[in-house]
Amino acid sequence: MKKISRKNLFDITEKIALITGSSRGLGLILARGLGEAGATLILNGRNRETLNRAVTQLNQEGLTAYGYAFNVTNRKEIQDAIEHINLGLLKNAGLSFKKEVIVTGGCARSSLVRKILADILDMRVLYLKGDSRADYADAWLAGKGVGVFSDYRLMKKKLKILDTYEPDPELHGYYCNIFETVYKELYPCLKNLFQ
C-alpha cells in the first residue's frame, strides 16, 4: 500500500497563498503548513518588524515567503496592497521583464520620445525602420501559437533596427521619483473614476 504523506495529500505547488494575521501564532503555523505543501506564501500583518522576522524565518526554512503589512479591515490599505503584491510577485519570482522594447511609428518617430521612453522604462529602446502594422505582428503571433514558428526571436531577425537608445539609470531614478510623487497625489483623487 502506498504511504500517504501530507505532501501528496495536499499539494498546492505553484499556488499562491495569502494568509492574514500570519506574522506570528496560528497564522504563522498555517502559513508554514501551506508552504510545506508547496505554496508561495504572502504573509500579512500590521507590524512590519514582526512580519519581516516571520518572512525571514520561513525563507530560512526553505519556503518561499513575502510579507506585506496592511490592515485587513481597511479597504484602501487592502486595495493598495493588492496592487503592489501582483508586480512584487512577478519580480520576486525571478520573472524577468524584457530589457528592450521595439518601437515604430507614431510618437516613436521622435528621437526625444524614444530617449525618454528608454529612461522611464529602464530598457533599451530599438527603433524600427519604417512603420510596422498590427497585422504583421498578428501573423507572427498566430504562427507562434499554432507551432509554425518555434520562437519569437525569429521575428526579431526579420526586423531592421535603425537606432538604439540605452537607458540612463540616473534619469530613470529621476522619472521614478516624479511618477511616485504625482501618483500619490493623483491616485486618491481619480481612483473612483476607474471602479
Automatic annotation (TrEMBL):
Gene3D superfamilies: 3.30.420.40, NAD(P)-binding Rossmann-like Domain (3.40.50.720). InterPro entries: ATPase_NBD (IPR043129), NAD(P)-bd_dom_sf (IPR036291), SDR_fam (IPR002347). GO terms for molecular function: oxidoreductase activity. It holds the Pfam family adh_short. PANTHER family: DEHYDROGENASE/REDUCTASE SDR FAMILY MEMBER 7B, DEHYDROGENASE_REDUCTASE SDR FAMILY MEMBER 7B. Belongs to the short-chain dehydrogenases/reductases (SDR) family. This is Uncharacterized protein. It comes from marine sediment metagenome. The lineage of its organism: unclassified sequences, metagenomes, ecological metagenomes.
